[in-house]
Design brief:
This protein is mostly beta strands and 435 residues long. It contains four helices and 29 strands. It has an eight-stranded antiparallel beta sheet. Strands 7-26-25-28-23-22 form a six-stranded antiparallel beta sheet, with no helix packed on it. The longest helix is centred in the C-terminal third of the chain and has 9 residues. It starts with 11 loop residues before the first strand and ends in a 12-residue tail after the last helix.
Length: 435
């Protein structure tokens, strides 16, 4: 099938800075000068605006992109409910600490049909809250199929395999230890160039992610704006048979599909502030204490939003004196969903928290190092040591209570029933009353 100006998937443009204006064109003179919607766009294209925020949002928050495409997105037949997709009926709000064994890959499922919701809160219809998903795909999406979510921005954490994500605005090739953010409404398809792929998804129903403010840290540190990458424009100008393309639309946590006679990947050029992007977690510049105690885990925040933060625990040096170095025991007003991309998390040495697994400690659910990790850390020689070598753990942290689906609690058969009994019940009493 002929494809014009098809860019190699691993070709990107580094942004001038995270959230900065960006433009790309596959054919010279595609982007108009001056008017965004000229009477006759160059090369016989259609102008289409993609709005990620309300038109009157403050300039610092306003996210809009103009695309110049062969046919507009509106040229499709009506969306119909797709009953092959299982929509969670109930979210259980429970204070129990939960941990899951690694989730299985489904050799037959593609991206759309491998999505499984673990938990969530709020409503996409009212643009409140979030959803947490696992994907475990064993097959590329069939030819001439595309997907988009109307429910929110999807932050994808790849744990295993490689995702070749063809978006309307160009390709993203996303590997383990990398993340991609796919904004609400942008269409894409997912191929698996190296076989099955598995990972985690945080879907943000409210607003968009941004970099955290650095405050006293200064102008550099944590995730630096220059390290985020955006796709370059490429397009398909082939003509297709009537109704040969299927577009899936995740809408209010249900799946709909519509057919059309043209590819959604026909954008020849685009410019604006609303686009997909990727980030290599290995580029994160960790900040920590060099005296005593250690900062709150917020110091590891990659991306932030009032609804949820994305936090990582990368390889790093610990040098504090007179300090219990693992995370302390705590109860938070925030909910913490944790996953492990690779290696071993330094606060969970008992082997129960494994790569491709997960844990959830909901609002005010007490948690912290397991008994083994506590004993080792309490007796450790506090010389400088590098923790997390070959490891990458992450956290979706939210001030909201995360409800858990039936699939997560029972149907997936991955919940560890002895999580509490094996982690904290073995803690020993060391108290000695002063004489």
């Amino acid at each position: 099938m002929p494809v014009t100006n098809f860019s190699f998937p691993d070709k990107y443009q580094y942004l001038n800075g995270f959230g900065s204006y960006h433009e790309s064109e596959a054919i010279p003179d595609t982007l108009p000068i001056g008017a965004n919607s000229p009477q006759r766009p160059n090369h016989g294209l259609y102008a289409e605006k993609l709005s990620g925020t309300s038109f009157t949002a403050p300039r610092s928050e306003n996210l809009q992109t103009w695309v110049y495409r062969i046919l507009p997105s509106a040229a499709h037949l009506p969306f119909e409910l797709d009953t092959s997709y299982e929509t969670p009926k109930t979210l259980h709000q429970i204070p129990r600490q939960l941990r899951w064994d690694p989730f299985d890959l489904d050799d037959k499922a593609d991206w759309v049909h491998s999505l499984k919701q673990l938990g969530g809160v709020g409503s996409p219809a009212t643009k409140t809250g979030l959803g947490i998903f696992i994907y475990a795909a064993g097959a590329s999406m069939p030819p001439q199929q595309a997907f988009h979510s109307s429910d929110g921005d999807m932050l994808v954490v790849v744990q295993h395999g490689v995702l070749d994500i063809q978006t309307e605005l160009g390709h993203l090739l996303v590997r383990p230890n990398e993340i991609a953010v796919l904004p609400r409404g942008i269409k894409y398809r997912v191929d698996l160039p190296s076989g099955p792929s598995r990972g985690y998804i945080l879907e943000l129903h409210a607003g968009h992610f941004k970099l955290p403010e650095l405050g006293p840290i200064g102008s550099n540190g944590l995730a630096n704006a220059r390290d985020f990458q955006a796709p370059v424009a490429c397009f398909d100008d082939a003509e297709y048979a009537p109704g040969s393309w299927t577009v899936f639309n995740k809408y209010d946590n249900q799946m709909f599909s519509a057919t059309q006679s043209h590819t959604p990947f026909d954008v020849v050029g685009w410019h604006g502030l609303y686009y997909p992007y990727k980030y290599d977690l290995g580029r994160f510049n960790t900040i920590g204490s060099t005296s005593f105690d250690h900062p709150d885990p917020s110091i590891f925040t990659v991306l932030t939003n009032p609804t949820a933060d994305f936090v990582i625990f990368p390889p790093r040096w610990l040098v504090q004196e007179d300090t219990f170095r693992p995370p302390w025991y705590h109860r938070n007003t925030m909910s913490e969903f944790m996953g492990l991309v690779m290696g071993e998390y330094d606060a969970k040495t008992g082997g129960g928290f494994r790569a491709a697994g997960a844990s959830l400690h909901n609002v005010m659910s007490a948690h912290g190092p397991d008994a083994d990790a506590h004993e080792k850390a309490s007796a450790a020689d506090l010389k400088p040591v590098k923790v997390g070598e070959g490891s990458m753990a992450f956290m979706f942290e939210s001030p909201l209570m995360i409800g858990v689906t039936d699939w997560a609690l029972e149907l997936c058969r991955k919940v560890q029933p002895k999580y509490n009994a094996e982690s904290w019940v073995p803690l020993k009493r060391h108290f000695k009353r002063p004489e």
